[in-house]
Amino acid sequence: MNERRARSFRTTALILKRRDFGESDRMLTILSPTHGKLDVLAKGARKPLSHKAGHVELYTRSELLISRGRDFGQVAQAEMRAPYLLLRQDLTRGAYAHYAAELLDRFTAQDDHDALELFPLLDETFARLCDQALDPRTVSRFYELRLLERVGFRPELHECVIGREPIQPQSQFFSYAEGGAVCPDCAARARASLHAVSLDALKLLRHLQRSPFASVANLRIAPALHDEVERLMLGYLVYLLERRLQSAAFIQRVRAT
Ligand SMILES: [Zn+2]
Fold first, then answer.
1. pTM for the model
2. Is-contact 182 194, C-beta < 8 A?
3. Which residue in 79, 100, 186, 249 is deepest, having the highest Cβ count within 10 Å?
4. What domains appear along the chain, each with residue ranges and CATH number?
């Protein structure tokens, strides 16, 4: 029998989001490596003595048995496998985990193939955010670049996105609309709004983009450089999400006519 049609299924899942539902239940948004992103109901999860509650905490990895309901699946059994405790105990690290989960949620849709392929990345990111030897900003930048690559917005950092010249070792610009570096010559002629990017920031982004995590984990990054790269990435991500929201709204308008 096709597993997707079966009445119930078992899956590993990361808990991305949860919200109160009815008197005593919780609706969870989970990420599964086999079923992608989906909403499931955890009945009774808000009752004080609920056995289930501790196994479906935010940002944990759990083994779930999900039975299919009429509208959405229900968590029939839950067993926590990786608690990622620090993500709920440490406010700062929790905020980074929230950010990572939120980005994944916003860049993927239910039944989206990208979502299930992002499972290992998010799981590793939660584990890295729990490692106090690691800088959560480096972890986050690495995560953003891999996420963007998977969902089709890999920033172009080696050639100018306007004139296609190879990028020279000097300060450059960055275009959110074109998704990459713009050389100073093209920038001088460009009408679109561009963002200055220093050579050091460009080098750091390239290193993060091409290297395995192990070779960037212990980089010593000056706070000012961290700030610059963070500003650039956040600006680009917000731009992409706004454009995505606008196109979703546009599709809805077209469907409604
Ligand atoms: Zn150019």
1. 0.92
2. yes
3. 100
4. 3-86 (2.40.50.140), 133-256 (1.20.1440.120)
